[in-house]
Automatic annotation (TrEMBL):
Record-linked Pfam families: KilA-N
Organism per entry: Aquiflexum balticum DSM 16537
SMART domains to which the protein is assigned, alphabetical: KilA-N
Protein name in the entry: KilA-N domain-containing protein
Ranges of residues in domain KilA-N: 3-140
């Protein structure tokens, strides 16, 4: 374990440590942005017990952890949302053999989460805090990249796990059995465009038709604020899909979410500019 580094996020000092080349961020420090230090553990427990969080954590572990106990995870997921259900990070790790979260004592002690998970936890605090956290982390990684001459891509880091959460929800709830690959790809693209329309006001095809001279797709040209909101929307849409909410209703809810979060982020545009 390397020496901790500190991110200053809206007056909150947030510790970052590296284990086997992977960055882990102290979510106990982050929780102080929502409550005082004495209640940080409660903020984390309330977050980890929700179905959305468990879906995210379980998907992350299944991608990166070959020793993850899926049966135990399924048990927790079935209990999520019940008033009697409680869960702590320590219980999560002990029962499922999870590697994305750990706790430690002493100086810089607290609960640490892999950066993918910590960014998701940032959503539980506020879109604004999540943006500041990502910008400070981006500054740290770009500094390291310059020093070590390696590439670090913010977009890939932010989007990869949320993408799996979203596609898993589509696969489990929207794709019938015995469907062709062509039909499946249409459903995935259709759901991706729900997010595109809610956030950008246009489908991927509409963007391509107006930007035929550009490489990539609509999301490659998104601002950092839009990417933060998009990652939040992917998790929310996955939850709404699991709840059986009709696509048209989901689009309305996601559009309102996008408007609210973008207004919040852009209202602090001058402050955000100082981070760039």
């Amino acid at each position: 374990m390397t020496k901790n580094k500190i991110l200053n996020v809206q007056t909150i000092a947030v510790s970052v440590t590296a284990i086997n080349g992977e960055d882990f961020i102290c979510i106990t420090d982050m929780a102080q942005a929502k409550s005082d230090a004495s209640r940080a553990a409660d903020v984390i427990k309330n977050w980890i017990r929700t179905r959305t969080t468990l879906e995210f954590l379980g998907t992350w572990e299944k991608i990166y952890n070959p020793n993850f106990k899926v049966v135990e995870f399924d048990h927790f997921k079935s209990q999520a949302g019940l008033p009697s259900f409680v869960l702590s990070p320590t219980q999560w790790v002990e029962k499922t053999n999870a590697i994305g979260i750990f706790s430690k004592a002493g100086r810089y002690g607290g609960t640490y989460a892999h950066k993918d998970i910590a960014f998701e936890f940032g959503s539980a605090i506020s879109a604004e805090f999540k943006l500041y956290l990502i910008k400070e982390f981006q500054r740290l990684k770009e500094s390291e990249s310059d020093r070590l001459k390696i590439e670090w891509n913010f977009q890939r880091t932010l989007a990869k796990v949320n993408y799996h959460i979203h596609t898993d929800a589509i696969k489990e709830n929207l794709i019938p059995s015995e469907i062709s690959k062509k039909q499946a790809s249409f459903i995935y693209a259709n759901e991706a465009d729900v997010l595109n329309v809610a956030l950008f006001g246009k489908t991927a095809k509409q963007w391509r038709d107006k930007n035929s001279d550009q490489k990539g797709n609509i999301r490659d040209y998104a601002t950092i604020e839009q990417l933060v909101v998009l990652s939040n929307m992917e998790s929310t849409n996955a939850l709404l899909i699991h709840q059986g909410i009709d696509q048209s209703e989901r689009l309305i809810q996601l559009n309102q979410m996008a408007i609210t979060q973008m207004q919040s982020l852009l209202s602090h545009k001058q402050s955000v500019k100082k981070l760039k």
